[in-house]
Amino acid sequence: MSTAKLEGSARDRLLAAATELFYSEGVHTVGIDRVIERAGVAKASLYSTFGSKEELVRAYLAGRAEARQRRVSERIARHTDPRDRILSIFDLLGEQVAAPTYRGCAFINASAEGPRGETKVTRACADSRAWLRALLVELARDAGAADPAGLAGKLVVLYDGATVGASMDRDPGRAAEARAMAVALLDHEIGHEVGHEIAREVAPEIGRPLAQPPAPRPRKRRAATARSGR
User: Fold this and answer.
1) What pTM did the predictor assign?
2) Per-residue pLDDT tens for 179-214?
3) Which domains does the chain have, with CATH numbers?
4) Which end of the chain, N or C, is less surrounded by CB atoms within 10 Å?
């Protein structure tokens, strides 16, 4: 954890301290006093700015969501092909899970630590997941998927598995494995189908049953002639 002095307004410092501590140690493990001490502000500043710890956690998650949306949007903007745009999300994930400070998905962690039922925290987690799913649905539709929502759901499963696996197994290679599975999934649900459609447009006869070759004509038998020398 960094020991550098935090700068900015009381709100900025509180959010920076919360982001640092909540992500590295957990939203329930870290108490308000730890956040206040790290931010270098009075307790009254926290309650006058956020009102409660739950609101501070929500603001921390909102900040994480905005940062992720910005990173993902910038990454997919490098590509024009929808398939490459989808895979670039897994490339970005691979870079993140390889960072020494990686502690898993902030939203999965916060949701797992919190109580069951709808709260400000669970809504913030659900909103973040909804954004990623909607983005993948849009990209899957652009790529020509017959069932964009279904394909996006499978891609989210791969994404989730990589984030959890990389954290639990301490193995950033899980993201590369998820990307390889995403490639196979796209080949199965988009690549082959689209390829065949393009082929049929270029050469309509492709895909039609092959015509049976004509039956060979019977060979005429030559009449035997006697060699009479005449």
Assistant:
1) 0.79
2) 999 999 999 998 654 444 433 343 344 344 444 555
3) 1-51 (1.10.10.60), 58-202 (1.10.357.10)
4) C
